[in-house]
């Protein structure tokens, strides 16, 4: 089969022929229909994830059709169209048994712990607790995006921060995951303010539900804070850092009202310094979101089915598998890249 591989961290990926995967006893093999290009793939390629062994095939947001099943699989069959959370749970550890498979201590992650979806076929483990059936009517790009950025944003806002209608939400960083947070916040009835350095990204945020936007290009942190606070003088109920920089996390935290909730979704290259004085003095909550277990997808899918949430509207570029090496390298060089790229394996 075809797959995009890299033999060294930061070494240019190449498209080559590799052996086809076989299903584990509890797993399946899926023929990939579409897969998202995510900044997490860039982090893995750059060597920021110590679980990756070389050579490696990245890719973790996907939709496709099952082509083979392991002997222990009971609830899925060849021909099912499915997606999966990028964190696949084992179903047996204390975290999984408490319903928190997204932090499973034995988790597998396609594109990280094993070869991923930038390939014609991908193996997924522990299928019975990790797969979600996708209706034929759901757009392939939208279905692929549900596995990572939309699921992570949805869990962060709904299950972690418990964002409610009428509350104020600040989203810092309007790339793919930031825009998904804007869309979800708007769908939940929150008043959303979006911050970015790129005018085009802010235009997208306005289109997808942000009531107000702040262009932070060239501004020092204090000036950004002043501009953000002017949009919500009493402070925000919830903030999201969707970029993963020390200064963007600080803007989110320092813009909160007393007892506000900050959700960290953007990944940091190294551990940041957090303004803990504000966290203590205002009794703020800092929450992470590491994806969402398959059993919690119905609420997200209900928003999509009701047309209150349209992940496909974020897709700005559709490329072929052969285009992935160039796209991955380009994304690594542009932290502000907006919109979403989807890889269509049928091209």
Automatic annotation (TrEMBL):
Cofactor: Zn(2+)
Top-level taxon of origin: Bacteria
Start and end residues of each Enoyl reductase (ER) domain: 8-342
Alphabetic keyword roster: Metal-binding, Oxidoreductase, Zinc
InterPro entries: ADH-like_C, ADH-like_N, ADH_Zn_CS, ER, GroES-like_sf, NAD(P)-bd_dom_sf, Zn_alcohol_dh
Presence of the UniProt keyword Metal-binding in the record: yes
Family, similarity comment: Belongs to the zinc-containing alcohol dehydrogenase family.
Protein name according to UniProt: Zinc-dependent alcohol dehydrogenase family protein
Species: Arthrobacter burdickii
């Amino acid at each position: 089969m075809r797959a995009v591989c890299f033999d060294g961290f930061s070494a240019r990926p190449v498209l080559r022929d590799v052996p086809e995967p076989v299903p584990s006893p509890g797993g399946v093999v899926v023929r990939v229909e579409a897969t998202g290009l995510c900044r997490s793939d860039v982090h893995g390629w750059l060597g920021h994830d110590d679980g990756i062994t070389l050579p490696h095939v990245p890719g973790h947001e996907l939709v496709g059709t099952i082509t083979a099943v392991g002997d222990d699989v009971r609830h899925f069959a060849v021909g099912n169209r499915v997606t999966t959370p990028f964190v696949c749970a084992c179903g047996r550890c204390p975290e999984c048994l408490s319903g928190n498979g997204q932090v499973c201590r034995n988790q597998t992650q396609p594109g990280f712990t094993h070869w991923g979806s930038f390939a014609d076929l991908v193996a997924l483990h522990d299928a019975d607790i990790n797969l979600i059936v996708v209706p034929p009517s759901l757009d392939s790009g939208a279905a692929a995006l549900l596995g990572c950025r939309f699921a992570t944003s949805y869990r962060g806002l709904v299950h972690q921060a418990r964002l409610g209608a009428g509350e104020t939400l600040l989203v810092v960083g309007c790339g793919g995951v930031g825009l998904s947070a804007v869309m979800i916040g708007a769908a939940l009835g929150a008043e959303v303010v979006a911050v970015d350095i790129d005018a085009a990204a802010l235009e997208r945020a306005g289109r997808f539900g942000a009531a107000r936007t702040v262009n932070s290009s060239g501004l020092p942190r204090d000036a950004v804070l002043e501009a953000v606070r002017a949009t919500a003088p009493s402070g925000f109920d919830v903030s999201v850092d969707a970029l993963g920089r020390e200064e963007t996390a600080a803007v989110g935290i320092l813009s909160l009202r007393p007892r506000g909730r900050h959700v960290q979704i953007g990944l940091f290259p190294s551990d940041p310094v957090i303004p803990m004085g504000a966290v203590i003095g205002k009794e703020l909550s800092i929450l992470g979101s590491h994806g969402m277990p398959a059993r919690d997808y119905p609420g997200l899918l209900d928003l999509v089915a009701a047309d209150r949430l349209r992940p496909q509207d974020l897709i700005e570029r559709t490329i072929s598998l052969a285009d992935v090496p160039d796209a991955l390298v380009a994304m690594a060089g542009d932290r502000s890249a907006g919109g979403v790229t989807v890889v269509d394996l049928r091209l």
